[in-house]
Amino acid sequence: MNGNNPAPEKAKKPLYKKWWFWALALVVLIIIIAASAGDGKDNTLETKNTPLTDTGEAETAAAEKAPETIPVSLELSNGHYTSGIDFPAGKYDIEAISGSGNVSSSNMYSGGINAIMGTKEENEAFGSDIYEQKYANINLPDGVVLSISGVTVRITSEAADGAPLKARQQPNTETVELGSGNFVAGTDFPAGTYDIVAVSGGGNVSSDNMYDRGINAIMGTADKNKEIGSNLYQQEYKNIELPKGTTLTVSGVDIKLVPSK
Question: In this predicted model, what pLDDT tens digit does every residue of 129-144 receive, in sequence order?
């Protein structure tokens, strides 16, 4: 009887005891972990590369470095004036406010000036329109020298360079008084940059570098002008450069050399 009965079926093992089940589960788990890690990495990169943060910092830095401009209005008379030292660099209108004479700049052929300027009253006294009262949009960039003789002018700019002015390189602080004669810078007086002031009398003052920031002028005191009833004599010239070896010639007038500031 036992031989005629079919053999009983083997009991099926539960699914969780199959090896391939656990292998499949492990693979799924690894995929889930990898995907989670990948998401975290991408999120981190997006946070670091947020364009708003970088752009904002760049704009702030650019604003801090942007040059400021300032309005300027100055009166200048006889002498040499260097932009960036004596006045801010920029584009200026130049107007004669008293007297008459020459106004030129070291960049006269590239946006600067080379003119005979004077007031309307000077033209009327002279009986001619030889003197120009005003020049507009004169470009005086950093380092350009503006030279003035015989006339007082006003220079104005609405947007000059706002950077601080540089200090003048002045090697000496000694004031020197000279009468008539020939005097060599570095031998008879210290070489340097000077304001030259008439002390007494009236006559000529010139230097052999007269075309290179030197001087060639008729100088005298205000009393001397009163004697002759004219403004022939100039009382002061500023920022006259007298480097070593330059000869300064004085005739008929006593002068004082004051180191320029």
Answer: 999 999 999 999 999 9
Establish if 146 belongs to a structural domain. Answer: yes
Q: Give residue-wise pLDDT tens across range 204-252.
A: 999 999 999 999 999 999 999 999 999 999 999 999 999 999 999 999 9
Q: Is 213 left (phi over 0), alpha (psi -120 to 50) or beta?
A: left
For 2-85, strand residue ranges (E) read 69-76, 79-82
Distance CA 160, CA 215 (A): 28
In a shared domain, residues 204 and 154: no
163-186, pLDDT tens digit by residue?
999 999 888 889 999 999 999 999
Domain end, chosen from 106, 126, 161, is at 161
- Predicted TM-score (pTM) of the model is 0.75
Residues 155, 73, single domain; the answer is: yes
| Residue 143, domain CATH | 2.60.120
Final residue in a domain of this structure, among 130, 161, 192 = 161
Rounded-to-integer distance, Cα 22 and Cα 14, Å:
12
In the chain, DSSP finds a helix count (H) and a strand count (E) of 4, 12
